[in-house]
Design goal:
mainly alpha; globular; 85 residues; 0% strand; 3 helices
Amino acid sequence: MVASIICTAVLLFSMMFYLRIALSFFPARSGGAMMQVRELAFSVTEPAMMPLRRALPPAQGVAAGIGIDTLVMFLILIVLQIVFC
């Protein structure tokens, strides 16, 4: 029972995280629907991303603007999905 709740939470967070990554590549107008979705995805994922950003040094020359913190969170989510789902 607990594992299924954690699995659901991990999957929902993963979807918001992937949405955040996808929307970061497209410009959004202030007040538009895309901006509201982006702000929602940001507000859900930022509490988990901020400690990673503080702990990891900024990367130089990372391809496509994806930072080390994003890659680490991606790996963490994969591990959590393997463990709980």
